[in-house]
Specification:
Elements (H helix, E strand, L loop, with lengths): L5 H44 L1 H7 L2 H4 L11 H11 L4 E6 L8 E7 L2 E7 L6 E6 L4 H10 L5 H25 L18 H26 L6 H11 L14 E5 H4 L11 E3 L11 H10 L7 E3 L7 E6 L8 E6 L5 E6 L5 H13 L5 H29 L14 H17 L1 H22 L8
Antiparallel strand pairs: 1-2, 1-7, 2-3, 3-4, 5-6, 7-8, 8-9, 9-10
Helix pairs in contact: 1-5, 1-6, 1-12, 1-13, 6-7, 6-14, 7-11, 7-12, 13-14
Protein name: PepSY domain-containing protein
Keywords: Membrane, Transmembrane, Transmembrane helix
Amino acid sequence: MPAPSSAPAAGSAPLRDALHRAVWRWHFYAGLLCLPFLILLSVTGSLYLFKDEIDRSVFSYRTVVAERAGPPLSPERLVFIAADAVPDARPTTYASPEAPDRSGVVTMAGPTGKTLVYLDPYDGAVLDRVGREEEAMRVVRRLHSLSFFGPVANGLVEVVAGFTLILVISGIYLWWPRRQTGGVVSVRGNPARRIWWRDLHAVTGFVAGAGLFFLAATGLPWSIVWGDQLRAISNRAGLGLPTELWAGVPVSRVPMGEVLDTTGWTLETAPLPRSTARDGVPIGIDRAAEILTGLGMPAGYELALPEGPTGVYAAAAYPRDVTRQRMISLDQYTGRPLVDVRFGDIGVVGRGIQYGIGLHKGEYAGRINQFLMLAFCLATILLAVTAAMMWWKRRPKGRLGVPAWPDDRRAVAGVTGLVVAMGVAFPLTGGAILAMIALDTALLGLRRGPRRPATA
């Protein structure tokens, strides 16, 4: 008769194997959905990490100027030159040079869309004119968010981010050592064998899994459903938008994110203040810029020009140092600051997310931050390639090769229940999970075929 202590271990082995197969099936499904998108996100993310470096090298002819001893032209003069360069449009924003050797940029809105006019701030020479939506780094950014393909595709980012979290968690479970001698921190075999690709996939996931999880989690705040809900909830709780700074200030129905590109996540939906309409003369762009400089606005800020008699001069700065982010709105007649938001004024949730986004974009900790995020992007591409090779080498001929469900229904129900619970936290991902369960159930039913009626 076996010792009592060995019975639980022996009895638990089949359940462990069943759980492993159930987790493997969901890991396969999550990878099937995510990996093509993760490759696109990783490639575009790698490029955007080095946005400034690309602008200063590939596009130096329009972003870099020769620094000179004399004072630069006034913002108003540069806006006038831009308006003359694009005569059928009106100026909407002015971006001040980030450094003495950088160009200024004026955005012109015309009947065919917005045009960016790059100007030498010292002599007003027009360095380039490019459609705002065709600007290289903006195209990369829109591809990264999938907004390039429309709002529905943009929603896929949330689905992919949610499934990526499932991929990482299930991948850790599958990686966890279970009596094997390799595939934990070492790679067995050679590229001709499937075990080599399996081990390379597992070890890469072990090394880079936390980074992939971080990238997915810090990308979620920008999603169109979960991110908007998080912003709304944190604002209502006083943990995001500092609503008290808007107390007693007349506001419009226009969100800050519609007039400024650089408001940051927390203030994107904040209402744009209004000037009190009067017969007075607006202070002008030069005076607005002078006031902003006097208030300590960082160089490189974006300044939106007033729209109509109640419009304001709205400025936002989004430097690489997250703690220096700032947003100021000025009354267009008096120059009085209506709203002035520093990073420290934002609630704890807003600050945490802004830190996360800064790290996600490689903006906070210099080269170390950039290259660490680049390593995670490259590791994600490697995970996708090794996963595809693993599948290719194990797939049955003429079939998709989905891992079979275990016979133990407890394992199936338990693992699927946990996946569904994660879907509750992320609505769009949850909808995709339910659709996958329905499709999987339908396909299993078709494979089994109709049941024969029982005979007496």
